[in-house]
């Protein structure tokens, strides 16, 4: 659609409206801080739940399918929540009811996940090794609820940040960078909690007959996660006042359009997406195909390939998982510092698309290096002989461990960009074309949940095909990252770093 052509009314058509005044920076900070509470729990999922699921007796090959909960719920929940938050007329606010509801669901989910082993044992599961079907069922239900809750929180939070930015592109970018920074804070806290093995002593009741030390630590971590999320959410919900949407003169067709069911609205938005948004979705989709293998299986990789351990046999696998959690804690430290400099770095390298493309190449190199580190770990494996003459596996040599931890730290740089630039661009495009922030971010979420579904379905069989390790999925991610980097540089339109959304017309993209 060319500028000035208003013969049709696509979902992303530019509307003539005066943007609302931007909210004070402190309000944006309070809303962005909710990301710390959400990401604390997400960090626990990434670092502890894959090993925990295997302790429940579920094979590694099937663990990937458990992670389908997230993308499936995200595909359904985010567009629905985004649509209804755009059109919510409650006095409490448009976004706030969904943020409050999401926080409440997190409490329910954490109870089910943390007490899954106890509930399963009370319902008839046996102790020791072997599959625990009842505990697994409780865990899966809790996991689904947790992912639904996270999607209820994140979409409205990012939409509220865009609302509070008053339609200014630079402020939207800064707000998303702040959101990325608080995600880093939550990640650091979550991974630190996950790597500490005596946290259960703070909550002595967490260790039970059916829930060993590892399980009790997981349970204790989630207790802290809930407390943090409820605190930051309560502050934002009570202090921040939502900015009302701009008043627009709507045609009768636009009024009717609001009555279209949410998925009709979503499909309409997809059908009428401008080319820049399609390019954004393509780059984001490939980007997340690269990220999910590492995010989902890093601690398992550390336990199996780097430390050479086996699930539920000896201590080496658990030591590797804790080392992996430490590496994931270093990742958001780098992510946090990188988030604060994204705007300056983007200007220095020639714009957001070049920065995003460059860090995707860095991501590809880092994922490829997991193969090198794994081979080094295998070739330098050390053993000792115990008093009973049994060979005992020793931890990896310092060079291998340092390399693996450094890799996790360096990956914080591209992750900071992934958590910021795509969402800022989506907010800018949606404001430019007059679409609702919630629905537009729901559309972008499709480029995240579909890759997660691909990785969840493909990684288990792919790894099993090549011997049961995590390396094949990492190699797949490296290839996707390289292609994503090429497309980001060659296909994404240039975007003036200092432009406000009202100056970014359809014809501005070249």
Order of strands across the main sheet: 1-2
Mean pLDDT value: 76
- CATH classification class of the largest domain: Mainly Alpha
Helix-strand string: HHHHHHHHHHHHHHHEEHHHHH
Question: What gross morphology would you assign?
Answer: globular
Q: How many individual β-strands?
A: 2
Number of helices: 20
Uncertain segments are 1-18, 248-260, 496-510
CATH topology of the largest domain: Growth Hormone, Chain: A
What is the straight-line distance between the termini? 14 Å
How many separate domains? Answer: 2
Instruction: Report strand %.
Output: under 5%
Computed CA radius of gyration, to the nearest angstrom: 23 Å
Largest sheet: 2 strands, antiparallel
Label the structural class.
mainly alpha
CATH superfamily of the largest domain: MFS general substrate transporter like domains
Can you characterise this structure?
Belongs to the glycoside-pentoside-hexuronide (GPH) cation symporter transporter (TC 2.A.2.4) family. One of its GO terms (biological process) is sucrose metabolic process. Pathway: Glycan biosynthesis; sucrose metabolism. This is Sucrose transporter 1. Pfam families: MFS_2 (PF13347). With 510 residues, the protein is mainly α. It folds into two domains: 220 residues, MFS general substrate transporter like domains (Growth Hormone, Chain: A); 247 residues, Growth Hormone, Chain: A, CATH 1.20.1250.20. It is built from 20 helices and two strands. It has a two-stranded antiparallel sheet. It is globular, with a radius of gyration of 23 Å. It starts with 24 loop residues before the first helix and ends in a 19-residue tail after the last helix. The N terminus and C terminus are likely disordered.
């Amino acid at each position: 659609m060319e500028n000035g052509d208003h013969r049709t009314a696509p979902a992303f058509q530019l509307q003539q409206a005066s943007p609302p005044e931007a909210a004070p920076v402190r309000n944006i900070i309070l809303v962005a801080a909710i990301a710390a509470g959400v990401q604390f729990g997400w960090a626990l999922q990434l670092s502890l739940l894959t090993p925990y699921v295997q302790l429940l007796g579920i094979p590694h090959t099937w663990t990937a399918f458990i992670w389908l909960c997230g993308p499936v719920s995200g595909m359904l929940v985010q567009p629905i929540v985004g649509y209804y938050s755009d059109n919510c007329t409650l006095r409490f606010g448009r976004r706030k009811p969904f943020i409050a509801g999401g926080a409440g669901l997190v409490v329910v989910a954490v109870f089910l996940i943390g007490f899954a082993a106890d509930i399963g044992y009370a319902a008839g599961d046996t102790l020791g090794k072997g599959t625990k079907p009842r505990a697994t069922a409780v865990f899966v239900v809790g996991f689904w609820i947790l992912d639904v809750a996270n999607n209820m929180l994140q979409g409205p939070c990012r939409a509220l940040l865009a609302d509070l930015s008053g339609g200014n592109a630079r402020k939207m970018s800064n707000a998303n960078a702040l959101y990325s920074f608080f995600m880093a804070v939550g990640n650091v806290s979550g991974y630190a909690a996950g790597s500490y093995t005596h946290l259960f002593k703070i909550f002595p009741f967490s260790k039970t007959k059916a829930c060993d030390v590892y399980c009790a630590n997981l349970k204790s971590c989630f207790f802290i996660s809930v407390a943090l999320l409820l605190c930051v959410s309560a502050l934002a919900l009570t202090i921040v006042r939502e900015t009302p949407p701009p008043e627009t003169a709507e045609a009768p067709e636009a009024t009717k359009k609001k009555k279209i069911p949410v998925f009709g609205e979503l499909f309409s938005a997809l059908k009428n997406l401008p080319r820049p948004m399609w390019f954004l979705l393509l780059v984001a989709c490939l980007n997340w195909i690269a990220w999910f293998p590492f995010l989902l299986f890093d601690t398992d990789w550390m336990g199996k390939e780097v430390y050479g351990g086996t699930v539920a046999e000896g201590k080496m696998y658990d030591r590797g998982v804790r080392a992996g959690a430490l590496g994931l804690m270093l990742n958001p430290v780098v992510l946090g510092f990188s988030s604060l400099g994204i705007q300056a770095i983007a200007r220095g390298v020639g714009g957001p698309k070049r920065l995003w493309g460059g860090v995707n190449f860095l991501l590809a190199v880092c994922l490829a290096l997991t193969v090198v580190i794994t081979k080094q770990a295998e070739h330098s494996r050390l053993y000792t002989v115990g008093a009973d003459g049994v060979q005992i596996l020793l931890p990896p040599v310092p060079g291998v461990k340092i390399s693996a931890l450094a890799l996790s730290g360096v990956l914080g740089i591209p992750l900071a960009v992934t958590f910021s630039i795509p969402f800022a661009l989506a907010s800018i495009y949606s404001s430019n074309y007059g679409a609702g922030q919630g629905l537009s971010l729901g559309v972008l979420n499709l480029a995240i949940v579909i890759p997660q579904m691909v990785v969840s379905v493909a990684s288990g069989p792919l790894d099993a095909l090549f011997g049961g390790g995590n390396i094949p999925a990492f190699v797949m991610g490296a290839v996707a990252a390289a292609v994503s980097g090429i497309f980001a540089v060659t296909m994404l339109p240039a975007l003036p770093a200092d432009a406000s959304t009202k100056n970014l017309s359809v014809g501005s993209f070249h």
